Amino acid sequence: MPIIEVKGVKKVFKKPVREPGIFGMFKTLFSFKYTTVAAVKDISFSLEPGEIVGYIGANGAGKSTTIKMMCGILTPTDGVITIDGYKPYNPKERKHVLNKIGVVFGQRTQLWWDLPLIESLVILKEIYDVPKDAYEERFKFLSTVLELDPFLNQPVRTLSLGQRMRADLAASLIHNPQILFLDEPTIGLDVLVKDRMIEAIKEINKKYHTTIVLTTHNMEDITDLCKRVIILDEGSILYDGPIKKIKAKFGDMRHISFLTKERNILLELKEMLPKDCLIEEIEGYIHLSFDLEKMSVNDVLKTIIDTYTIEDIKIEENSLESIVKKIYENKQI
């Protein structure tokens, strides 16, 4: 049975029409004129327990609005959202939902700014009425995977961005929620801290079977964590399914870039390699792009290495970012 169900959900915001100037500002207070903006347009999907799903889209696509509706912060204009059978925006059912979810917003913190981190966690333990044994077990696990010990006794306001994000993740999980919403959790983090966060999220999912919804602009995070992705554009779902499926649909592409002292070799390469291979020169490097189903990496590499003296070479597969870009350009899949 799905733990999250979103059925025919729409969210429309009303914005008052404001005329310019101070007079226009006061006139707006007594005006009934407004425009409507559809942030989310009739979306439907469901998530099974233990899934890690990437919920991605451009700025203004409706990602954060959907997350806020699933958390109960916003109420849908139309449609139904249920979290383990409860409606998060229903005042009578909200308490049940809050015990089942954890939320991390990359731009905000739920910790007490002037208190040491350890005291914030103890307060959250009391708020969620977490039994002592359960709290100690989860605290020990989270301290280990998120490496919290060095700054447990520091006031939250003194933490670096990376430390605060790890602290926020711990705070959202201290009551062992069934569902974790991560809205841009790695924004602004350096590579080392980001990798720690990703590994910690994997460990949390593995140990507690936590359902995770991840929104991010970093396609590497999606590739590292998710098997399924939901792509949103202007409030509508363009794609919902496995990452492997869209990679297969757009071709299992490989990209080889190499540097050689030899010049003006593009025409020669085009004669040696199949016509389906895209060849171009960018900033001194020769770039080759081809579908793995039509030619092998070994054959292409052998042709290059046997013919030219190579100074530098790298091989990349088709990135999720480039695929999403194509989907947005075509507005379909």
From TrEMBL:
Keywords: ATP-binding, Nucleotide-binding, Transport
This protein's record includes keyword ATP-binding: yes
Residue span, ABC transporter domain: 17-259
One Pfam short name: ABC_tran
Keyword set includes Nucleotide-binding: yes
Record InterPro entries: AAA+_ATPase (IPR003593), ABC_transporter-like_ATP-bd (IPR003439), ABC_transporter-like_CS (IPR017871), ABC_transporter_ATP-binding (IPR050763), P-loop_NTPase (IPR027417)
GO molecular function: ATP binding; ATP hydrolysis activity
PANTHER family, per the entry: ABC TRANSPORTER ATP-BINDING PROTEIN, ABC-TRANSPORT PROTEIN, ATP-BINDING COMPONENT
Stated name of the protein: ABC-type transport system, ATPase component
Species this chain originates from: Acholeplasma laidlawii (strain PG-8A)
